[in-house]
Target: TonB-dependent receptor SusC
Amino acid sequence: MKDKREEEKKWEAAPTTSQKKINIFNKLKFPSESNTWGMLFFNSSKTYKYMQITINSSTLWRKISLTMKFTFLLVLLGVFSSYATGSYAQDEKMSVMAQNATIEEIISTIEEQSGFVFFYNSEDLENSNKQSIDLSDGDIYEILDHLVANTSLTYRVDKNYIFLDKKEVAAPQQQTVTVRGTVTDQDGFPLPGVTITVEGSSRGVITDNDGNYIIDVSPTATLQFSFIGMQAQSVAVEGRNTIDIVLIESSQLLDEVQIVGFGQQKKGSVTSAVASVKGAELRAPVGKLSNTFAGQLPGIISVQRSGEPGYDQAEFWIRGISSFAGGTSPLVLVDGIPRGLNDIEADEIESFTVLKDAAATAVYGAQGANGVVLITSKRGRAQKAKISYRGEVSYLTPTRTPRYANSYDYLSLYNEGLINDGEPALFSDEILELYRTGADPDLYPSTNWWDALINDNTYNTRHTLNFRGGTDRARYFVSGAYYGESGYFKTNPEYDNNARVSRYSLRSNIDIDVTENTLMRVDFSGQYLTQNRPYESTQDIFDRISRIPPYLIPPMYSDGTFPQHPSRTNNRQNPWVYLTEHGYMKTYRSFIQSSVHLEQKLDFITPGLKARGMVSYDSDNNYFNSRTKNPATYFAEGRDDEGNLIYRKIEDEVKFGNPASSNNSTKKIYLEAAIDYSRDFGPHFVTGLLLGNRQHRQLHNDALAFRKESFVGRGTYTYDNRYTVEFNFGVTGSEQFAKGHRYGFFPAVGLAWNISSEPYFPYELLDVVSKLRVRASVGRTGNDATGGDRFMYMPTFGDSGSYAWGITSGGTQNSKTGLIENRFESPGLTWEIEDKRNIGIDLGLWSNRVDISVDFFNDERSNILLRRNTVLSVTGFRQNPWQNFGIVSNKGLDGSVNLNHIIGDFKLSAKGTLTYARNKILEYDELPQVYPWMERTGKRLVNHGSQLPLIAERLFTEDDFNITTDANGRKQYELKDGLVGTPWDDKTYPGDIKYMDINGDGLLDDKDRVYDPDGFHPQVPEVVYGFGFGLDWKGLYFNAFFQGVANVTVNLNSSASVFQPFYWGLIESNVRQEIVEDRWTQENQNPNAFYPRLRISNTGNNWTSSTYWYRNGNFLRFKNLEFGYNFQKELLSKVGLSASRIYVSGYNLHVWDQVKMFDPEIGNSGGGGTRYPLSRTWTMGLEVTF
Model:
């Protein structure tokens, strides 16, 4: 008896509603036919309640008596009332006296004296003998032992519930064990309502509200755990008493199911090149999602060219660039609908998937040539409501700040340039000293314009609040977020002229099981965004910082007067006034995105068949408001006798006028209908898809809406999880082409072979090689994007302007006026075609703790849509006609390695990704060139601007010249024989750039210019890689990630005035400090100096396009670092939390590169780094879940 009591006392808390029901049902055996239970009584503190109910029969449960004393509903009511009245102590003493009484009469006596409630089958008591009992001050166990003695009954006490049951008299039963445990989800939250059944039987229980369960089973039994929205699991008991289970979400589960175009597939049956990450891996303290996945996913090449709040989105390509015309951006879909990549918060993302080859993208037809990005948002789960909050505050500083010369150095270099040109110095030592000492900063300023306009740091904040939960019939995910970022600009206290963005986001995803076979999803999302910036564009401000000399004017005179140079040209205007006193511009954007999705199972026709449809409506509105002003400005020409500044007025004050405003809007409708089929037939697995969709986009100012429609098909067959064949096709119709050319057919086929599933695969290798799979695909996709030119096949006419027709006798173009054909008719235009081929291998080692995937691709795009380059303007064309002309190949590889390993309390993870893509122009519309190195055909896609470069070897040194001295003692230089000098300047001198005479004709001219010089690369990297690692120990974790690029070139000469001092003269250029520190001089005759000898006159030799200004743009960036702590659940439960973590993270912490002067990722687009800087970010964050 003692052992039984100890076993009962292990139950610390009263059973919850769901558990009471299951415990009762384990004891009750329902009759085989419908019966009415009699008057069933529940006794709680002398209060009697009853209800008459009818329950359908079940052959799984034994017959019960009409006098059974409870119903399920009354049990629930009794549970609640028991909480109100308390429970009877099992150790409390009582007295029971009865003479020749039935067991039922004794039970009634016990119930009358106590709070105990008995449950039993009256049939089990019918043949029991009458008893006499006389027990004083006994506890409930002593009374029960006496009651069941010499009977066929047994009892169990659970708090104040007593269960009587009949001992089994059948064949000897197998030994049983009591198994307890807790069922949770991936986040550690308990799952109520999980069904646990014994395999091969109908016996089962359901977890309570805390996810707990208890069940008696055979030591050799197998338990099956199932729950709506979760992957079912089977676990062998193996004699254990405790089995805790973590159920993994089955809906679009990344580890088991792969998101693909218009659906999902088992990972084992995917034949295409696909890469995915979970949304949590894309969290970063940045404003745009596009800035987060560089190096995270194999196949993506991404660069961020600006850090300006609201305009800092990265450019990205999937497997590089395969066209020299427009339309190289991937298609982005959010929950299956074409939408903007940056219109969703990272906290709202469940998975982020990249489709790369034809087997994955052919279903998107004309929109699949550049790859596809699929973003799946989070959805609700059948669970208790979870509320999670994440808050962050970030501290930002520029990753690199430019260095400019002070006034003393600037004017000294100007003197040096004059002397090198044979002219006398302009500024005396006395004047230079005034600038050096800064004794009078009003008249002799030395302004660091970067420091004057740009703050050293700024901040951003982020707050997100998510609600997730539901039942087996309705589930929800609701998220709200705020993101705010301030720029680096110094501001006017009277109004906000800073670069700034504030964004409010809302998302609601609701899933409703209308019936057992009908699912409805209702999704809504929206954003309200405000962006602020100076009235002048931020790019103009940074241009002026880089171009105005430090000596010209101060930002503000000491008496508060605004300075302005008398010439007032763009490069001489006061940047401080330009930034803080010219006004501001505000942009307001609001959009809503809504969709309704209906899915109907058609198993009554055939199992695995379902139909689905979707309609979405998006509305995007933008409003622009700007106000401008100008202060009175002056130029200080000197001081009077009293030391006051003598001003000349330059501009009158212009006060704020009426605001200028504009607005535009876009409305989009997307319709989709599909039939899906998925079914297993023994070793055979078959899927099918037929789908049609239509897109409608109406712009504010366009009377005619944009429309596109597609028809899609897919079929897959997998045998025995070993062999898979897949066929896809997309048929797309586009308005861009004439009738007869509007529809394109884009098919693809894929094959996969799971070698490790073969019966002959060596068994002894499976411990090491747990997965070995090869894939191959070939197919065709298309493209109709041309950069916004609509109805390209149609001619357009105008009556203004003129066009060229022939050449006059003087050799000039002969202009004609009249009716003009602006765009020439091109009725034969058709789709760009991209043929894609892919071979991949997937390898898992040591139970997939190491997962490796590598793909090799070979793509070729033909029929490229472009305007003909070789049509002469004198033939009468106002615009060159459109035509399908050009072929570009794109080859490479991408791959990833992932490691996950647990050693005791340590969890170790590591990952690496690599993408390499090199293109080649196979056909290009160009005039015949004199030499092959001048041709684009056969070369990579490289953007040199308007002029091809010369190959720079080094700087000339005095050893290259025969040197003599004139009558004034000045050196005279004559190039030695065999060396080629400049044709652009009057003479070549030491310190000038020495170029390669490519054709060997003894002259330097345009015939020596090279389209794709050896050793140099395009401005978009050909190689992107990333690697990182993580460590977790008892909740304390550490993660680090590095990202890099290779085979990329930065052209410093892309902005002439930045790295060409005095290009615009004395008062319209600034000088970089790198030129001060490392230029060719008589004292520094370094042939590889950063800058050639200084000259004031325009030097065609040193400033022409050449590889001297090309820099290796490769870099390795310490992209992300995070360390934090996940609090233990035992501690959190005491304060009402289920999860919590604190963390500190760093982003863009350091970069290793050879550019040094500015962040190399800005590249050529920054005009030598003259662009809003990228940011180094430190973040503190808190995340809690209730």
Notes: DSSP finds 14 helices and 62 strands in the chain.
